[in-house]
Specification:
single chain; 177 residues; mainly beta; Nucleoside Triphosphate Pyrophosphohydrolase; 3-stranded antiparallel sheet; disordered C terminus
Length: 177
């Protein structure tokens, strides 16, 4: 399902633990780390898609997490053009995402990367919330920076702190109220 502007509706998921670290999954057979994400199917709300993707990619159920917040608007990124793409007339430009910030109320052992027949990740780890995101594929970094910055205000210990998210060759300073 692609919208009129060429973007596929999608959800991104940031999972935090009790010490406000975030879940990072390593893409199968790649050295790319990312947050869980996935497309919104026809008839699904963003929240329904988030819970479906959470289970498919990470093996977590709704009882394992608590929603802390979500982004107000769609965040878009463009996928680089693939010279090998067969359909030259395709309208597809990239993805538009609603991001959710979740708190893991379950245990680490509830995570199961093999919950679906086609796993997205082959490893996972906890990272500091304000980690350098250069391990993320380049075309997604700007959206990751925006999502982390917008959702940081939902973290209980984030009040009155100043943070820096490093993105490529520049810094984004964030003041949390």
């Amino acid at each position: 399902m692609i919208d009129r502007e060429g973007y596929r509706p999608n959800v991104g998921i940031i999972i935090t633990n009790d010490v406000h670290q975030v879940f990072w999954g390593k893409r199968v057979r790649q050295h790319a780390w990312q947050f869980p994400q996935g497309g919104i199917q026809h008839g699904e709300t963003p929240e329904q898609a988030m819970y479906r993707e959470l289970h498919e990619e990470v093996g977590l159920l709704p009882d394992h997490v608590k929603i802390l917040g979500r982004t107000r608007e769609w965040m878009r990124y463009e996928v680089p053009k693939n010279p090998n793409r067969r359909d030259e007339k395709s309208m597809y430009r990239g993805q538009k995402q609603i991001w959710f910030l979740l708190h893991l109320v379950g245990r680490d052992c509830d995570v199961c990367l093999r919950a679906s027949p086609h796993p997205e990740f082959d490893a996972w780890r906890w990272n500091n919330y304000w980690v350098d995101i250069n391990a993320v594929i380049e075309f997604k970094r700007e959206v990751y920076t925006r999502a982390l910055n917008e959702l940081a205000g939902y973290l209980p210990s984030a009040k009155n702190h100043k943070h820096v998210v490093r993105h490529v060759h520049r810094e984004t300073h964030v003041s949390i109220r």
